[in-house]
Amino acid sequence: MAHWATMDPQAMPAAVSAVHPIEVESPAVPTLQRALGVWDGASLTIGAVIGTGIFLTAGDVARALPHPLLAMAAWIAGGLLVLTGALSYAELGAMYPRAGGLYHFLREAWGPLTGFLYGWTCLLVIMTGGIAAIAVGFGDYLGALVPAFSSTRIVFALGAWHVTGAQVAALLAIAMLTAANHYGVRQGAGVQNLFTLAKLFAIALLVFGGFAIAPVVHPHWTAVLPESPAALVAPFGVALIATLWTYDGWYALTFSAGEVRNPRRDLPRGLITGVAVVIAAYALLNLVYLRALSIEELSASTRVAETATRALFGESAARAMTAAVAMSAFGCLAATILYSSRVYQPMAADGVFFARVAHIHPRWRTPAAALWLQSGWAAVLALTGSYTQLFTYVTFGGVLFHVAAGLALFRLRQTRPDAARPYRAWGWPVVPALFVLGMALLTVNTLQSAPRESLLGLLAIVAGVPAYVFWRRSGRRGTGVHELP
User: Fold this and answer.
1) 315-340 and 165-182 helices cross at what angle (nearest 10)?
2) Which of 117, 151, 266, 311 has the fewest CB atoms in 10 Å of its CB?
3) Do 136 and 168 touch, CB atoms closer than 8 A?
4) Is residue 429 reached through a cis peptide bond, with omega within 30 degrees of 0 on the bond before it?
């Protein structure tokens, strides 16, 4: 693929470095440690995406599109849309190789308020709600193996409110992984790298085993399609939404760009490689599901991976798959805690968030305050159970921010044509335009299918405006820990 970034930062002309400086370490102002390579970046991308979704949502896709060929088309279409996003964000990430990802893209293109509102919404629910959901999902699967952590076991009750064993497991997992990330990016990356390798190994076993034995059913690829293509538009949109939520997290590496060793080269490689691996894994897993279950059985299943494994290999293998899904959820949680905490530190450094959050730990070189703030709120959401409702409310807003970030690439090409671009989006301008168009259509679809939740999500975003005004009027200037060009 053309346009790989090969520029050596050490040999970069001073004029270029001045346009988009990378944080320079100073004894007085500790910075994030640039310790992540290409494999770490690809692993973070894979780990952030593959959690429990691919093991569960194939049934949702099949219910919307009860045809093997159409169901596979939805998975491939979702993957290609995500790939167009990765190719677009790779350019932006290489331009602004700092912790924070979309915060910087939106801030540079559309102004500081837009960047702040994204970070505000991330803390309110997008990232913290995701952490809570993944953690409780991990607890649910762990409870199937260890009864003490079962979601049906009540550990504590106060009136109508109660805490289950799965929620206890969620809290323990959040605390453990936040501590691992507190003590250095290499420690945090090491944990999630290990679990990424483990989940890829489990997926490989299921894929190779699923193709090595005779299929339980033969997918009816040539089943009759609806006569009117228009009749497929709405169900295909529903299926595409399900696949895209399963792909969510594909942009994770841009949040950790401030810790990539050579971001101008390694960030595009890690991001695009990781997305490509996920697309291939998802396609192969769905082919295995279709060899194990009829489209009707697939549609009726809520735990597709276990059901398919049971059909192919028996009950013992299905139980092993339950353990594999729990492990996958834990690894996804590790990756999500690592990357998502990086958005709040630059906000604080710019003077529009709690000042303490801007500081980097002098010894461990991690955004420790941001990590614990994020995980503390995620734990509250996990305990209250409100994260599921909140997450629904910001679905519309989350997709809307991706539209704005995709358009940021076009705006910056226009307003800053001479800016250093170590990597240029492949397929410009068609590929980035397809990403923006796809996300825009998804925004409209979400608004139509869930108007109440979408409007409430917008209100949650707008609620950040008074907070932004408060921090701006407080008179506190940025800390200098993270200066923007």
Assistant:
1) 50
2) 151
3) no
4) yes
